[in-house]
Amino acid sequence: MKNLPYFCRGEVVRGFGRGSKELGILTANFTDSVVELLPGDISTGIYYGWACVDNGDIHKMVMSIGCNPYYNNAKKSMETHVIHTFKEDFYGQILSVVLVGYIRPERSYDSLGKNALIAAINHDIEEAKRKLDLPEHRKLKKDNFFIASASSSMTSSNKITKGH
Ligand code: ADP
Ligand code: MG
Questions:
Q1: At 92, which helix (H) or strand (E)?
Q2: Which one, of 3, 146, 66, lies nearest residue 81 by Cα?
Q3: How far apart are alpha carbons 100 and 134 in whole angstroms?
Q4: Which of ligand 1's atoms lies nearest the C-alpha of 79?
Q5: Looking at residue 112, what is its pLDDT?
Q6: Ligand 1 atom 18, closest CA
Q7: More confident residue, 107 or 128
Q8: What is the pTM assigned to this prediction?
Q9: Which residues have their alpha-adjacent CB atom under 5 A from ion ligand 2?
Q10: Nearest-angstrom CA–CA distance, 134 and 37
Q11: Which residues line ligand 1 (CB under 6 A)?
């Protein structure tokens, strides 16, 4: 898919609490300024890739890019589920991600129902884990983007890097 890999970085803000706590799948929301930088023609749906919080370890992730129902779908949202168990929340911290591949289009809670949606997300997580073990995807984990995130002083809350 074009636009991939896509690198971005920004502050984690509060979302709407809809879905994730209810579904038991936490999703870290980016600030609007990060979402607004997405290429206009990027498809909505579920992506997989690598993520790190501040200068922590790099983990596998799945991300939903969707139209936000709280703004009559006029605004996109980017919600990242990091495939790792954290000891605490990381609101206000800097999340760095690279979107590596596309899994599927969005499916709504309303159309699927709770159990089917949880099953779909768990399926996405398994697919992400498998795909990210491929050598061509593993190498993005070593990208300078993540090294830079560890060494740069985060003076701005939404430094963005696109491409290499
Ligand atoms: P919100 O509606 O504020 O996004 P969520 O219920 O979706 O609330 O929880 C997301 C928050 O949980 C993130 O902003 C982050 O601080 C925290 N969190 C803890 N572990 C994870 C994880 N593995 N993946 C994503 N967010 C996590
Ligand atoms: Mg969330």
A1: none
A2: 66
A3: 11
A4: 4
A5: 79
A6: 89
A7: 128
A8: 0.90
A9: 15, 20, 27
A10: 28
A11: 12, 14-17, 20-21, 26-29, 80-82, 84, 86, 89-91
